Write the structure tokens for this entry.
Amino acid sequence: MSITVKNISKNYGTQRAVDSISFSIEKGEIVGFLGPNGAGKSTTMKIINGFLKATEGEVLVNNINVAENSLDAQKHIGYLPEHNPLYLEMFVKEYLNFCAEVHQVSKESVSIILKKVGLNPESHKKIKQLSKGYRQRVGLAAAMLHNPDVLILDEPTTGLDPNQLVEIRSLIKEIGANKTVLFSTHVLQEVEAICDRVIIINKGQLVADKQLSELKGESLETLFRSLTN
Ligand code: ADP
Ligand code: MG
């Protein structure tokens, strides 16, 4: 279980949204992917998933080349897209059963995952009746139904209220314990709360890749400000 990103770049027309980024993440790591809006986080994550082709470079997930074998690689990846699109009119369980069919996994996986993300009490409701925090749990459940060992979570906590934030952070920490997790955020405290390691990008370029323990008293905030201005 690992993610290896080798010199990936992405051009949108004349704009270089991602510029020669490289990093690798090993099993059991929960890595915060931090950067201001427009830094290139979502683009990088879509490339790691095989949803978008890099202009240059390559990505390996569990040693599978994602661009060459995207379906195979996606069996190992759970992806929670930014804005978490959901079918609001569907019931929670109905939606997850539908996702289970798409992934060709058993209905039993749905019961297991409902429990894991703490959705049982809400599973009979329509998605539109859920709070934002519970909707994120539905997205997380959908991303994890096929039991992937790599999770790519794009701004999973954006728009949550403080209580929901705490709950979703601890859920990510819990489910990430034996997986490989890359999650993006533009909130510094989030990285401090969940991760051991931070990768910072700005204007498409990687500007830092550090263990939080390496910061040696320097605050993440100071580092972030100095690198992203
Ligand atoms: P982040 O997730 O860090 O906010 P994005 O990866 O979404 O950054 O965007 C990086 C840059 O690429 C931004 O300037 C954005 O406007 C641009 N961009 C993103 N997607 C597209 C697209 N499909 N077409 C053109 N430009 C895009
Ligand atoms: Mg984004």
Summary: The beta strands are 3-12, 15-25, 30-34, 56-61, 64-65, 77-80, 150-154, 180-185, 197-202, 205-211. Residues 12, 15, 17, 35, 37-43 surround adenosine-5'-diphosphate (ligand 1) (CB under 6 Å). The first helix runs from residue 41 to 49.
